[in-house]
Design a protein that fits this description.
This is DUF1800 domain-containing protein. Pfam families: DUF1800. InterPro entries: DUF1800 (IPR014917). It is a single chain. The protein is mostly helical. It has 21 helices and 4 strands. A hairpin with a 2-residue loop joins β3 and β4. α18 runs antiparallel to α21. The two termini are 33 Å apart.
Amino acid sequence: MDAKRARDEKATMTTLKAYIAANRFGFGPRPGELTRIGDDARGWLKAQIRHETSPPAAFDTLPVAADSVLEMANARRTSTQAYQATVERLSRANAPAELQARIEVMTTSESPFRERLVQFWSNHFTVSGEEPKALPLAGAYEREAIRPHIFGRFEHLLLAAIRHPAMLMYLDNPYSFGPNSPLGQVVQGFSERLAQEILAHHTLGPTGPYGQDDVHVLANMLTGWSHGGIGGRGPHDGHFRFRPTGHEPGAKRFLGKHYPEAGMEEAERALAFLAGHHATARFISTKLVRHFVADHPPPAAIRAITRVFYESGGNLAEVSAALVDLDVAWTDPLTKVKTPYDLVVSTLRTMGHQGIEPHTLMRSLRELGQQAYRARTPAGWSDRAEDWIVRDALIRRIDWAREVASRAPRTIDPLALADIAIGPVASRATLNTVKQAPSVEAGIALVLASAEFQRR
């Protein structure tokens, strides 16, 4: 009997670890996925830490950002009205298509850990459609600047994100001219927005070791970082372009280091220094542990990831593997609350697209409180339960579960759905409630609205 109990306990633990791998490090299990993960959950995750050989096919027909940048820039030269109309038209065309493709990839991927890291880094380097000019570009930005670099070096990811026209436009840098530059003496347009966000949210953190003087100096270093869609000599191609006539001349002192005048290289060197700073390692490691372990990150886990981040020179493949190796990430399967985005994706992974048509995705996310590509600030969406589980939000989640259930085929067995979605963590009370549901629709809604399904 003791041997049988030991075997049963081992099997239960194996299944639980497979569930954590699929639900916390991914977006929830697909039918049969826990069996495919088997007894090597960590190995299953680490096998996903590799560069894509090619982008997912769902992205094949989506526009490149440069084309949209150029189209907006040409309209801007015509008139303000033409520019606004072009931004609105591109937003209506691009944003839903990008979201549909993104959701399709995340719900069908055999590498959901990779997809979760794409989401994490895209949120870390937020480009938000709350600035209308950024909305047509937000999806392309994630595909072009974030996705290819999630397992490379942080320095390269940082540079790709900052150089992308979507980030430059979102934070007003294309028309930021050094006050003493040739353009700056003609046009007043100096902006510290990009420099502020780089320091506060992309690298050192809001309490990092910098002052307002450092923000000002970094902003001067970034003057002239623009795109090839606006005035001056070409190429007019919508890609990143450095405009030397807008760059603030002279040597600069940033975070105690002397930078001789070097045009575009000044900011490149500053970004490389920030990427390798210990404060950056700690800030980002804290965010990663919060995302993958708990809202209140265990200090020992933060120290472990910070050490790997710093000592590896920001090697994100090694950092990702170190997250998987954190024992604390495997002790409790439901420490994190799903964001609305997680909730939608995990539902689709569990049910397929039964019950949710693609055109309803943007409306669903808006009603749940996480409108696609529209984080409210450059800090991105919150990763804490207290910002998602409030009374009105809970009611919206329950209503959404009912709506999905009302559209789902009546051939679905609610208990079978529960086994796929929450089987290893489902309480007896939850399963009894689903079993006693008066209809298939009610049973499906109870699974999707259950406390277990709302967490990861």
